[in-house]
Amino acid sequence: MTDSKYTRQTVTGIHTWVPGKLFSLRVTRDPAFRFQAGQFARVGLPAADEPDAPPTIWRAYSMVSAPHEDWLEFYSIVVPEGLFSPRLARLQPGDALYIEKNPFGFLTIDRFAPGGDLWLLATGTGLSAYLSMLRDPATWQAFRRIILVHGVRTASELAYRDEIQQWHKQPAYASYFQQDPLKLLYLPIATREALPGAPQERLTTLIADGRLEQLAGASLDPQQSKIMLCGNPAMLSDARKLLAERGFAPGRRGIPGNLAVENYW
């Protein structure tokens, strides 16, 4: 390979969540590729009319897979007029995908001091980084409770929902739930469809009016809570303002904060 910045990997599987809209892609992983849960990779494809040429189109995707797993998994929305995601969705097992050798990003649990409650708030494919974290034992060991909130439009967009809801039965997670049945609370929220036990509302509205805390049975206390935000820019902007008023702020100058934000757009 002439370019040392990336490796050529092979697609091993595609999972379609919503046809023509949401999908996951699994590829081989170079043994030298190391990352922290929550980081993202730059993923590349060649120009559309030169399938065998070096990659020239690159996009950032958070890893869904955990750092210890020997594959890489990415979760994506299809942007109909986009240059990249429609082609990514059409890849088949055996096709090539290029991955830059170095990961990026700072949405990682080492942004926070251990202990207290970890709130993982996501919209859409912003869920990706949190799945990597929750597949990593270090996350479960670092915090007292974990509250995962996934905001979508309709129930069909709740990718990975079945997996998350079955974690308490899986050997890798069972010990955490034995110690505390409420170790992980999963709150799926849809804005355009009523879900059992969940308000049909935007995530930011639920923060503002206190209903998110009621649903979680926990308070957004800046002394005890650490919050991650990952999703579309409008949600991030509104949520940051609401949480700043409550005393949440990113860390600075080596001092751990209680808020971390990733723009997933």
TrEMBL record:
SUPFAM superfamilies: Ferredoxin reductase-like, C-terminal NADP-linked domain, Riboflavin synthase domain-like. It comes from the Bacteria. The keyword Metal-binding does not apply. The keyword Nucleotide-binding applies. Residues 4-110 form the FAD-binding FR-type domain. It catalyses: 2 reduced [2Fe-2S]-[ferredoxin] + NADP(+) + H(+) = 2 oxidized [2Fe-2S]-[ferredoxin] + NADPH. Transmembrane segments: none annotated. Pfam families: NAD_binding_1. GO terms for biological process: cellular response to oxidative stress; heme catabolic process. It is an enzyme of class 1 (oxidoreductase). GO terms for molecular function: ferredoxin-NADP+ reductase activity; nucleotide binding. Keywords: Nucleotide-binding, Oxidoreductase. Its EC number is 1.18.1.2. Belongs to the ferredoxin--NADP reductase type 1 family. This is ferredoxin--NADP(+) reductase. It comes from Bordetella petrii (strain ATCC BAA-461 / DSM 12804 / CCUG 43448 / CIP 107267 / Se-1111R).
